[in-house]
Amino acid sequence: MREVSVIGVGMHKFGKFPEKRVEDLGREACLKAFQDSGVEPKEIESIYCGLALDEMTPGQRIGYEVGVPGVPTYNFENGCASGSTAFNDAWKAVSRGVIDMALVIGVESMSPVISGVIPIPPTVLMVKMGMYAPSLFGIFAYRHMHDYGTTLEQLAMVSVKNHDNGCLNPYAQYQKKFTIEQIRNSRMISDPLTLLDCSPTGDGAAAAIICPTDIAKKYTDRSIKVKASVMAVGGYQSSAPLLFSYEAKKSANEAYKMAGISPKDLDVLEVHDCFTIAELMWYESIGICEKGESGKLVEEGVTWLTGELPVNTSGGLLSKGHPIGATGVAQIIELVTQLRGEAGQRQVDDAEIAMALNMGGVNPGLIMGLAGNVFNVANTHILSK
Amino acid sequence: MREVSVIGVGMHKFGKFPEKRVEDLGREACLKAFQDSGVEPKEIESIYCGLALDEMTPGQRIGYEVGVPGVPTYNFENGCASGSTAFNDAWKAVSRGVIDMALVIGVESMSPVISGVIPIPPTVLMVKMGMYAPSLFGIFAYRHMHDYGTTLEQLAMVSVKNHDNGCLNPYAQYQKKFTIEQIRNSRMISDPLTLLDCSPTGDGAAAAIICPTDIAKKYTDRSIKVKASVMAVGGYQSSAPLLFSYEAKKSANEAYKMAGISPKDLDVLEVHDCFTIAELMWYESIGICEKGESGKLVEEGVTWLTGELPVNTSGGLLSKGHPIGATGVAQIIELVTQLRGEAGQRQVDDAEIAMALNMGGVNPGLIMGLAGNVFNVANTHILSK
Questions:
Q1: pLDDT in tens, B279-315
Q2: Which of B20, B64, B127 would you mutate first to test chain A, the one with the most A CBs within 10 A?
């Protein structure tokens, strides 16, 4: 198995761009990735594109507009983890020698089709009964408060922190600071989660070019190594551990093992903060703190930009935005940017090892009340200098 | 690279099942594939699922219902070639040693969401102007008649042949014979294509279990080898050769080379007969006859069940049906069934080498009138005893 590196990255700003097509969003991200890497479009051997909502062959359509028509193209849907799924499959192909040079795209155009909550398959009976993501995470929030003494202020702090970070990221959907009071006083969405406890819908794209590390070195000295890429998928389980994700745990633990590190070695972390409570739940699931300790972790400043382990320096889903298929690739781009030392005002000093956790899908067990985890797919990537 | 074999297959009958969920369709196909192979669900290491229309994480949802929860699951969308794309990516993973045992699913539930033509991205301007698939293929038909003297009767014969074959396939959506007159006299859809020149919409699923040939032999002596798996994607091209698919040609030629055969070695062929004219166009594109000769090939009986090279013995898309994501996997199942000698009344004698061509997507060049090919993805698979 060959070591793989990210050789170039590019993004289309996340935001509301209802007038743009998927091609427009993806094109800008890809052209920046070409420029960033020094790779020419004709060198790309395969395209791996993540997109969650209904579009036909988005990878081909974007490839056609950026000078990469006619290469094998795979379009992936894995809910909110579509982008990192495309990255994972591309990594497999490059690491196993199927191809040398892959273009990974994450893209989503939500504005023309969605307002409000992300549509979840109506065959999921709990969803038919009104149990959309905000409803579930609202329940998780109250349960976390009940079980562990987590406070509404601690939840709000996650949003304050991520919006603070988003102010320093020109690609973020929102560049605006909020106070705890403003977050608590924003419109109630699903008690106790307010509007600012929830990630927004939006449009955007992210692209990365990957190749074997040996080849990457010929192009640039700014390439970043992929030390682990792991997908974990939801299994059968009791509904008891509502506040914990076995998939996130499994995915992260396998990734730590693959990279030969422990959570203590992480310098930068992007986690899937679709809701403030989600960020806290994943802290506990991936082992950066004990169960029930996540609220304190935020309150004590550990995961703020100036803390010991900054989390969601990009602004996270809460502030950077969450155009579904783009999110997983954008998280990886934040890791690359930090590890290169190119994150500007949000740069984490001496960042050497960074991890991203992207989650998506709905656990089919929810249909029967048999699964405690709302999410079905957890993809973990660990990158290093 | 390891040789890969298909160790077991299963289908849910194609047809109109608006009351069934994607899970119901997929479950039946997968359970049959397990029974057929002797493989147990717990032995599956990864799921590769093809589905074209909007559903979230279908592979996980089906896996959950058939005892395969919790394995890495990739959901692919590549238009009408989604199923064969899933098969191609699974083949790569098994042949390169990423995993040993993969479950490939093709599935689609169209009845609840579609009546009439398959929706094509509205960003394709020619589609906005009314250029849906039937419109394009109607133009192709008239042009083929003009350029090569192909007749309306020859077009209709493709449908007669495939419906004859479909009568012998219990999994086909339609088991009904038609005469040339009945086909010509059916409702006009897009001049000169009538209703029976067009494949129907429908629901269905197909599943295949693949593993290295060495391992397959331990389970069964009915395994079938995958000799080639090739995806070709549409490039930039002039609009001149409207009646020819460069992708189909490229995909087939690379597959012939990979398998070490020529078109003359084929005993059984499934091609993407979304319309009668399509079957003729692909004959010429993949080199089983010269340009302009396809009409005669059908008229002379070469591609009928009793001919030299039977094509679409399953009934093809015209009679077996075309639940989009399921089609590519179902084609491969027909090859396996024929090569095993298990095709019953539609069995081709001494079938040793078989090929399937699955096509999908819309060439982005159509937007600008820059591409002659309506299709964007051509996947070719060659299997042998």
A1: 999 999 999 999 999 999 999 999 999 999 999 999 9
A2: B64
Q: Dihedral angle at the C-alpha atoms of B214, B218, B223, B226, nearest 10 degrees?
A: -20
The dihedrals phi and psi of A256, each to the nearest 5 degrees, come to -55, -45
Contacts of B52 in chain A (CB under 8 A): 56
The whole-angstrom separation of Cα B303 and Cα B311 is 5
Measured between CA atoms, the residue of chain A closest to residue B65 is A364
Q: Does B89 touch chain A (CB under 8 A)?
A: yes
How many other β-carbons are positioned within 10 Å of the β-carbon of residue B65? 18
CA distance A260 to chain B (A): 20
Q: Which of B307, B98, B110, B62 is nearest to A88 (CA)?
A: B98
Model confidence over B303-312: pLDDT tens digits?
999 999 999 9
* CB-CB neighbors (< 8 A) of A57 in chain B: 77-79, 360-362, 376-377
Identify any residues that bridge with A109 across adjacent strands, giving them in sequence order: A203
Query: Which ranges in chain A belong to alpha helices (H)?
Result: 22-37, 58-65, 82-95, 125-128, 133-148, 152-166, 180-185, 213-219, 246-259, 276-285, 294-299, 316-319, 324-340
A374 pLDDT band, cuts 50/70/90, is low
pLDDT in tens, A178-222: 999 999 999 999 999 999 999 999 999 999 999 999 999 999 999
Contact check, Cβ <8 Å, A92/B93: yes
Work out the average pLDDT over B180-206.
97
| CA B223 to the chain's CA centroid | 20
Residue B125 confidence (pLDDT):
63
β-partners of residue B8 are B209
The answer to whether residue A80 is catalytic is yes
Handedness of CA A225, A64, B255, B217 (dihedral sign): positive
| Minimal C-alpha gap between A89 and chain B (Å) | 8
Q: Report how far Cα A135 is from the mean position of its chain's Cα atoms.
A: 21
Q: Please tell me the distance from the alpha carbon of residue B136 to that of residue B343, in angstroms, as a whole number.
A: 34
Q: Which two tokens stand for residue B301?
A: 């009986």
The tens digit of pLDDT for each residue in A243-259 reads 888 899 999 999 999 99
Verify whether residue A272 is a known catalytic residue: no
- CA B247 to CA A338: how far, in whole Å? 41
Query: Please, which residues bridge with residue A27 across strands?
Result: none
Is the omega angle on the peptide bond into residue A192 within 30 degrees of 0, that is, cis? yes
Q: Are B205 and B322 in contact (CB under 8 A)?
A: no
How far apart CA A150 and CA A154 sit, in angstroms, is: 7
Indicate if ipTM > 0.90. yes
Q: Which of A61, A65, A79 has its CB closest to that of B57?
A: A79
Question: Above pLDDT 70, what percent of chain A?
Answer: 92
Q: What residues in B contact A22, CB-CB < 8 Å? A: 123
Determine the straight-line distance between the first and last CA of chain B, rounded to whole angstroms.
19
Residues 6 or more apart whose CB falls under 8 angstroms from that of A77 comprise: A50, A51, A52, A325, B51, B56, B57, B75, B76, B77
Interface of B with A in 326-365 (CB under 8 A): 360-362, 364-365
Residue B226: strand, helix, or coil: strand
Minimal-distance CA residue of chain A relative to B59? A78
8 Å CB contact of A77 and B64: no
Q: Are B313 and B343 in contact (CB under 8 A)?
A: yes
pTM of the model: 0.96
- pLDDT at res. B3: 98
- 8 A C-beta contact, residue B276 and residue B158: yes
Q: Return the minimum-mean-pLDDT range out of A333-347, B123-137, B331-345.
A: B123-137
β-pairing verdict for A268-271 and A353-360: parallel
